[in-house]
């Protein structure tokens, strides 16, 4: 069985190591703060006395630390020839591409990964990890990677998994921004949020989220018209929301940059287009 090492035992690295141990793998662990190895050693992990002991030729090294600078800071000190690196640290597409070149130039196989799960989901249904880079590495280690989460290979360009990861996070943070602002409005009326969330907001977001399928198809086809609600109507709604926020005494409007984009598109004469046309404003496509 392949030797597997986990470098970085923060919340995510600890979950990754624990899941592989439970699946019966032999796992070596290393972390800057050594005490974090203890619960895993109690589960059967081997503690590496130093980083070089965890990064050995022939081993699969899963690294999950704060950022790519940390990855380079750590692995820049060790011999990488004959090692296979799976980097589950979150980062930018360009960082992943540079890291792949850097690792391969030093004789290591490289696969980048974007973890679409919180630590508690690792090893359970619903967890997804997107991978890009070496297809050969992905295929060779399909079994242990499949223990961590659904493993989906997206491209040989190492930057694509981080790019898709960021696109999904962008959607998530946008949604959280809207939820936060909506909560503030409900709070300003002195109402508890619990009922609002369960009976109104969550079902509404679920239904509206479905529109993304339709918008995606329209953007792919360059169709900017709409039979749902045009930008002119949406501008009136967003103006009204901004005013209501102020009238209710709410500090700030997290929708402001979005409203700015709608205002610009309408000012440019595109009031009959749909919301999906805003993507064109951000990027003209390739
Ligand atoms: P934690 O803050 O819990 O852990 C950070 C890890 O990085 C620790 O092992 C820490 O070591 C190590 N580290 C930080 N700085 C250094 C340094 N200068 N030298 C050596 N080691 C260092 O973070 P998470 O485990 O939550 O996240 C790790 C990665 O996983 C991040 O890139 C994150 O974006 C990604 N991720 C996390 C998710 C989550 O829900 N938690 C979800 C998806 C991705 P030490 O213990 O010594 O401080």
TrEMBL record:
Which InterPro entries does this UniProt record tie to the protein?
Answer: 6PGD_dom2, 6PGDH_NADP-bd, HIBADH-related, HIBADH-related_NP60_sf, NAD(P)-bd_dom_sf, RedAm-like_C
The UniProt record lists the NADPH-dependent reductive aminase-like C-terminal domain at 157-282
Task: Report domain 6-phosphogluconate dehydrogenase NADP-binding positions.
Answer: 4-150
Report the Pfam families cross-referenced here: NAD_binding_2, RedAm-like_C
- On whether Oxidoreductase is a keyword of this UniProt record, the answer is yes
Instruction: Give the keywords, sorted.
Output: Oxidoreductase
Gene Ontology MF terms: NADP binding; oxidoreductase activity
Task: Look up keyword Oxidoreductase and say if it applies.
Answer: yes
Q: Which family does it belong to?
A: Belongs to the HIBADH-related family.
Protein name listed in UniProt: 3-hydroxyisobutyrate dehydrogenase-like beta-hydroxyacid dehydrogenase
């Amino acid at each position: 069985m392949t030797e597997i090492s986990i470098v970085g035992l923060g919340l995510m690295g600890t979950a990754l190591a624990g899941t592989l141990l439970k699946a019966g793998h032999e796992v070596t662990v290393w972390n800057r703060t050594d005490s974090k190895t203890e619960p895993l050693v109690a589960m059967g992990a081997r503690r590496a006395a130093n980083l070089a002991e965890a990064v050995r030729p022939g081993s699969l090294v899963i690294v999950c630390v704060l950022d790519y600078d940390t990855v380079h800071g750590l692995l820049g000190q060790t011999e990488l020839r004959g090692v296979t690196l799976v980097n589950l640290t979150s980062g930018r597409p360009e960082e992943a591409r540079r890291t792949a070149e850097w690792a391969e130039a030093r004789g290591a196989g490289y696969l980048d990964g974007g973890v679409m799960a919180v630590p508690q989901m690792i090893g359970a249904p619903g967890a997804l990890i997107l991978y890009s880079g070496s297809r050969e590495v992905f295929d060779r280690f399909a079994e242990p990677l499949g223990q961590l989460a659904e493993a989906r290979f997206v491209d040989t360009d190492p930057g694509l998994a981080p790019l898709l990861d960021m696109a999904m996070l962008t959607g998530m943070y946008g949604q959280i921004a809207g939820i936060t602002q909506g909560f503030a409005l409900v709070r300003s009326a002195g109402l508890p949020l619990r009922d609002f969330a369960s009976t109104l907001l969550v079902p509404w977001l679920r239904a509206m989220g479905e529109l993304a399928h339709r918008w995606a198809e329209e953007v792919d086809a360059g169709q900017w018209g709409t039979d749902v609600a045009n930008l002119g109507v949406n501008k009136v709604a967003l103006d009204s929301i901004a005013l209501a926020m102020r009238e209710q005494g709410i500090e700030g409007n997290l929708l402001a940059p979005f409203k700015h984009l709608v205002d610009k598109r309408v000012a440019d004469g595109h009031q009959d287009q749909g919301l999906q046309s805003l993507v064109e404003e951000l990027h003209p496509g390739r």
